[in-house]
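Sample entry (82 residues):
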Amino acid sequence: MNEVRPNTTMVLAAAEYAAEWHKHGKPRKDASKTPYINHPIAVARLLADEGAVDDPEVLAAALLHDVIEDTGHSKESVAALF
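Predicted structure, serialized as tokens:
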């Protein structure tokens, strides 16, 4: 298991918000119809594990990257929280 990274709270908050904002959306288009939140989590994990990214703002952005496009939240509303 990876060690806990700095500012984990921001990253976890971004994951929580992204999951909440996507929960009423459509599932992924894969054969299993996985929940949409799996995609942003996979992007953040790829950045952390393969790209050695440990900047909490970048990881939070990875988790939130589809919120504006997919949920109708504005850039300003997301920026106000993060």
